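User: My collaborator sent over this chain with a note saying "see what the structure looks like." That's all I know about it. Can you take a look?
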Amino acid sequence: MTTGHSLEQLVQGTDDLVAHLRNLPTDTWEFIGVPSEFTNWRAEQVAGHESAVLLHQGHMRHPLSEFYVQGPDAFRLLNHLGTNSFSNFKPGMAKQYIVCNEHGYLIGDCILFYLEENKFALLGAMVIASWVKYQAAKGSYDVAFAHHDVVETASGETRVQAYYQFQIQGPNAKALFTKLNGGVYPDIKFFRLGDITIAGRPVRCLSHSMLGEPGLECWFPLEWREEVMAAIVAAGEEFGLKQVGTRTYPTQTLESGWMGMPLPAIYAGEAMKAYREYLPADSFEAWFSIGGSFVGDRIEDYYYTPYEMNYGNFVKFDHGFIGRAALEAMKDQPHGRKVTLEWNREDVARLLASYAGDDGDLPFKYFDMPWAPYAMVQCDRVSKDGRIVGRSADVGYSHYVRGVLSLAVVDPDIAIGDEVVVTWGEENGGTRKNSVERHRQIDIRAIVRTAPYTSVAREQYHSAGWRAQAA
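Assistant: Without extra context I'll predict from the sequence alone. Here is the result:
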């Protein structure tokens, strides 16, 4: 296949884009600079519920980037691209920022920080940074960008982050931050920015929680990393703080209900053609491998709307934005919704037992503990009574709940408490991805639960947020 010099040439150079992305050698997210485990991943998972965890965010090669937008037109640009309302958005605030294409399908989401007048930071998937830069050039906005991340492209380009990000979460997080900040817990409202002091260093923070308990997401200049981290670890001993390694880190989303990396809705349609011509053939977007038992007839079968992701509360029609007309048209229509699937323990045991079998059959697809996706975008078939009713995405094992959970989007007629079937593994022995061995498929029964899964997150998370809305 001839890839050419742009994503559009790559798309046009294949007869079957779905098959191409399903057979890419790219596996899943890459992590650097942080151990896979500090103690063991089971203890690190449980600590998030029983004491406190330190989550390092400065180690992700693929998913996260540090992207700054500033200038006289920064507010106008971001307002035009996001579905969110900016009517009361002011410096010192943040929001989960939702970006769609003209047909109302999700390109991605990230955390948008309003740092100061005419200056914003976006922390999240690189797909949004690329989209913002393209739209700024297309619309002649008076803005400037600074982009820091830890990504390497096929051409060998490397950029290094300017700040180090981390979170402390869990029931003892508030007490730990109080100790670190000289005996005072900062009075910062939910999704507002504030400042604390750790080891004599000023640290910026966002009031944010992954599992419903009070917690802060923080960042500071990278050169202070060793000093600040040492102070946190020392102070955290009395609170049972455990550092989270890269094996545990992605599993946090299974209970909080955030689906981290859906396929961006950019690969088809005339409206997105110019954007695909703008993106180089070795861009991050060109390496979105797809894995799993769901096989779509076309690439659009892998797209999501904000409503399906339970982001309807973030779609506000008080301003003009890309995708507004399409989202208005679908607003009152039935929507699929994001749920948690609780996998049947007996079926999971049968899956795992196949690795020790010697009956001449291939084992079932390997389930990597505790985080099991084997592509950038995991997409497994969900069925009920033989009918496909949804797609299961991020999946893993939680030692806290002693079971396997996955996040899925299911049809509107599927109710909480229903039993469905998740097909684990790929057809015909598997695709050609590096992460796929020869295997059989297995059907796993699962019970449909709310997203987020844990009662703490559902009941204590901010009442106006998408998690409360979904529950």
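A starting point for your reply to your collaborator: Residues 150-157, 460-471 have pLDDT under 50 and may be disordered.
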